[in-house]
Design a protein that fits this description.
Blueprint: E1 3-5, E2 10-13, H1 20-29, H2 31-34, H3 47-62, E3 67-73, E4 76-87, E5 92-99, H4 108-122, E6 128-134, H5 138-146, E7 150-161, E8 164-174, H6 178-184
Parallel strand pairs: 5-6
Antiparallel strand pairs: 1-2, 2-3, 3-4, 4-5, 6-8, 7-8
Helix pairs in contact: 1-3
GO cellular component, one term: cytoplasm
Pfam families: Acetyltransf_3
Protein name: Ribosomal-protein-serine acetyltransferase
Length: 185
């Protein structure tokens, strides 16, 4: 497995097609607490759907359009963190992620998100990284704040969730800001 080790407990890894079953099991176990903010969860019905999603994400990775990484905690698949859309023209990307409920409250997502931002700036040479989340998704808003990302504004009715349109907060950080931001956080 090609991986990026964060510490002795945590690593990010390029997904393998053989991870489809573990990813489906993680999503299925957490379906109730993931599906509100991630409506795509309602469309995941079997292992093959996740294996197909991994295959599509690997193609986008090969094309330089996205970077989808699995989060492994003590050897267990805990979630995903992604550069969902890498825009080469504007040298920017947006971050997406999810974490299984049993892995929350340990700082895993903050560390994983910090790592993918490092990768985005150091390996991909990107200029700007964004993170958008529903206004009422306090854990996601807190990840952005813990990373020192700048709050750039609220987009009215930007996200479609299970129960309709919701406002979205947008946070961002620039490559030249990142080293100084990290010294503070």
């Amino acid at each position: 497995m090609f991986s990026y080790k964060i510490n002795d407990e945590l690593e990010l890894a390029v997904p393998r097609l053989t991870d489809g079953e573990a990813l489906y099991d993680l999503i299925d176990r957490n379906r109730d607490n993931l599906s509100y903010y991630l409506p795509w969860v309602d469309h995941v019905h079997d292992v093959q759907a996740e294996t197909d999603a991994i295959r599509r994400n690997l193609v986008r990775f090969a094309e330089g359009k996205a970077l989808d990484l699995h989060i492994w905690y003590h050897g267990r698949l805990a979630g995903k963190v992604s550069l969902n859309s890498i825009d080469a023209m504007y040298s920017e990307a947006d971050i997406g992620y999810f974490l299984g409920k049993e892995f929350r409250g340990r700082g895993i997502m903050t560390l994983a998100t910090r790592a993918i931002i490092d990768i985005a700036f150091e390996e991909y040479g990107l200029h700007r990284i964004m993170l958008q989340c529903a206004v009422d998704n306090l854990p996601s808003n807190n990840v952005a704040k813990r990373l020192g990302m700048r709050f750039e504004g609220c987009h009215k009715g930007r996200l479609i969730l299970r129960d309709g349109y919701h406002d979205s907060n947008e946070y961002a950080v620039l490559a030249e800001e990142w080293p100084d931001v990290q010294k503070k956080y």
